[in-house]
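@channel anyone free to eyeball this complex?
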Amino acid sequence: MGKGFCALFKKDCQMLSSGKFFLMAIGFLALYTAYVNLGYIRFMQMPPYNVYLYDPAGTQTEKSSLVQTVPSMEAMDTALLSDANGVGLDASAGEVRVVLYKGAEHVDHHRADYALFLLRPSTGSAPEIVGTNTPEQKARKEITCELLFFELSAVGFLGIAAVLFREKGMGVIRVHAILPLQKNLFLLSKLAVFLLSDLVFAVLLTLLNAGLADGAALLPAVLLQTAILSLIMALLGLLCALLLKDFRQFTLAYLIIAIFAATPVFLSANTSVKFDWIGWHPFYHVYMGLKNAYFGSATSPVYYAGAAAAILVLFLVVQFAFRREIGKEM
Amino acid sequence: MIEVKNLTFSYGKDKQALHGLDFTVEDGEIFGFLGPNGSGKSTTQKILTGILKGHGGKVSLFGQDISAARGQEFFQKIGVLFEFPYLYANLSAVDNLNYFASFYPREQRRDVGELLNTLEFKPDFLKKPVSSYSKGMRQRVSMARALVSNPRLLFLDEPTSGLDPSGAVLFRKIIEQERQKGTTVFVTTHNMADADLLCDRVAFISNGNLVALDTPKRLKEKNSNHRIVIDYLYQGQRETKNIEAPELEAGIPFAHDEIISIHSQEPTLEDMFIQYTGRGLS
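replying in thread with the prediction:
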């Protein structure tokens, strides 16, 4: 059994390697890391809007260093013309007047309040800070969590389905029906290859983007959640590849999964958009499990029981579909 | 080696594929299983190779009921050549064979290089990916895959498909050599020449029923009209005479100067198949 599994594992690695899967994973890792460190974190540290002040009499003495003073109203107009999200403050007539290009109403209020706050930053009431993460740590963990979820649910899923479609197209799955090996090993070796690859990816992505010290502390919980998501997605990928006729049909299923499964989860978990039914969406719980792992929050044991049951049920369904596939007309 | 009694199989409520087949295949025999598409030969082969479950009747291989014999030991004893050359297109012939061979005990495996050499595989292609092979080369690698485990029972589905005439002759020679080693061979084919030249016995299957089973020679003899056609020259003229075979016992029963050819009017296997089933083999 051990030898058979090793042969399958080695062959699956060869298949992935020849399909440039590992190369693609390394490419995605480099891309995500560059995006987080060179783009996202810098962007998150930037002030939300530029504030331009015209104050010829110098009446605004308490203003924040983030406020940019302009020498004339014409200069302010020019600045707002090139930065339509910016906010202008005209203090030339004594009382401060807010000048801005009209956008969405509630955002405009926010922009105006923010600009006026920068004139007297000491007057704002200090909010209670919850949690120990610095804004940068928080941003790093959030984006790493999102990228890992995307990678496992979209890219890895696509990868495993692509491999099985190739094998299905070559007809070699049927040869395994008459080989002296436990048929489940064929599925288990694929799950093992993808699980291992996803775990390595999760380790590298977390360490490179959430920070070495922070990331190392998070790894046990993150790896557990990665394993759950990786197994679920790999089993779904196998099932799609076994049930669907060809890769073209799969791309349609993939779009449906990506649009209708992942989008509401991202919206509910990361924005103020709330869906009443999101609690029934299984991927929402998986995503929250991963997010909890990154932020050190506890995850309910019911979730783990549900995840284990889902993996078991999916495995049994995939096993059934696999046995049906190998018995097909030769 | 193989014993099949009242074998039935149904794909659904109203889709009965096999209607009670009875046959045996002896140790070391080459047994041909012939039938048109959809006649039930693939279903029968899938049951015999342990792929398809849920049949009725009794099927024994190696003296053991097939239901109890689907373990790894059973699969170690059989080799299967599928109708199409199922191979990993991204791997070379050698890598494919080493991979498939790795599931069998080391002492049972044949040397991959030697096997490919026997199958006259072009050495230049040994390390090239299967995707660059011709159909005939893929068929040779597939045959090597079926033989690499030294099986005691070999299932061959259309073994000479995709081969040129010399390749077909080579394959028939190799199958004969396997039989001489004691391997039992179960051949499923449309190719009447293969069946006639290779098989000790053939079975005709039609609509899930076994309609005839005998040696190719006896099947043809049984249905022969025992007539002979003789072409000859007489007084400078070419002529043809159609006579009963017993008439030859006392020599050529008519005046002639030179015999050009003598043809028996024995039917072909295909004629027999059409006679038994009312259908062609295509």
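from a first look: DSSP finds eleven helices and four strands in chain A.
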